[in-house]
Amino acid sequence: MPTINLRNVQKNYGGNSANAVSDLDLEIGDGEFMCLLGPSGCGKTTTLRMIAGLENLSDGEIRVGDRVVDSVINGVFVPPEKREMGLVFQSYALWPHLTIERNTDFGLRLRKVPKAEREERVSKVMKALDIEKYRDRFPSQLSGGQQQRVALARMLAVNPGVLLLDEPLSNLDARLRLEMRAELKRIHAEFKTTIVFVTHDQWEAMTLATTIGVMSEGTLQQMGTPDEIYERPANRFVAEFVGNPPINILTMEGKGRSALADRMGQFLAERFPALGVPGSVGIRPEAMRWTTELSEVPATAFSAPLDVTGILPTGGNWILELRSAGDKVFLTTDELPEIGVGAKVNIWVKPKALHVFDTSGKRLDGADALLRTCKA
Length: 376
What we know:
Elements lengths: L3 E8 L9 E8 L4 E5 L6 H9 L6 E6 L2 E5 L4 E2 L7 E4 L11 H5 L1 H5 L4 H14 L15 H14 L4 E5 L7 H18 L2 E6 L2 H7 L2 E6 L2 E6 L1 H6 L4 H6 L6 E4 L7 H13 L8 E4 L5 E3 L10 E12 L4 E7 L2 E7 L10 E6 L4 E4 L9 H5 L5
Parallel strand pairs: 3-9, 3-10, 7-8, 8-9
Antiparallel strand pairs: 1-2, 1-4, 4-5, 5-6, 10-11, 12-13, 13-19, 14-18, 15-16, 15-18, 16-17
Helix pairs in contact: 4-5, 5-6
């Protein structure tokens, strides 16, 4: 399947409403697993529907390879059924009166595919998704995860060049979601299909995607690999949206900043004066360490004394809630904390693990290289 390009795409539903999608430039490569990630109302589903042809553009252009499928200025609009794309909705949309086999071959029958070829395709995709044993059952006789496999099989049977998935796992329980994530990874590797996946679940995006596009209020905030999105968020929104527990943010600008932010300001001013006064500094909970012995804190690390106000077990990890003079931060550890609530500890973090943003919330240019010069 050729590359999909969105150029200056906009969507407005009329009246005085703000754009659902604004000035969106997006490129989806052949065979890519692209996740559009963001909170509800950010424009990710609208973007997916515009790619599918279920929504008209208000402005801009969508190309599939050299073929224009939607262009406002040129008056071009290719209908959904001629775009060679498959769409799987949040609801499975299976025909309740048809067997699983008939649901799976539904698209092939509409396309009048010969019987022998149809049966071969259906058999192959049902085996791949482990639903062949249910071929004579009806959707009501299957679990949610099994129904989701049928919805995917129906789309894969017609061999679309692009598979569009609109939060397909949101109706499943935690175990089934995990299984279906693994299934989607396998499907992508086996069928080499370009997948565009819409989700608000950061873990789905991080574990599935080859590329993530983070959206907020109709605009694309950052495009990158999962590692790039997590390790080098382009702005505060991305940093705060991706990560669980959320990143700790110390606001550095303005009067009356917190005691912990003031301590961070002094640390940066002494060690990295070239940074000036940043707008804010982020610290991932997993990047922080703690100790009851001040002598164990590396000399080049940022550190601060804090009180333990909560210990939250999560299974294989523990979250420590820490406070001092109104400040509250979270730290995660994979070792059982042999301390209790009320204990006093020293937290520390290596300079290279700090995320520095300017006053507008954008990642501060040059800060990463400067902080990495410190060996902690």
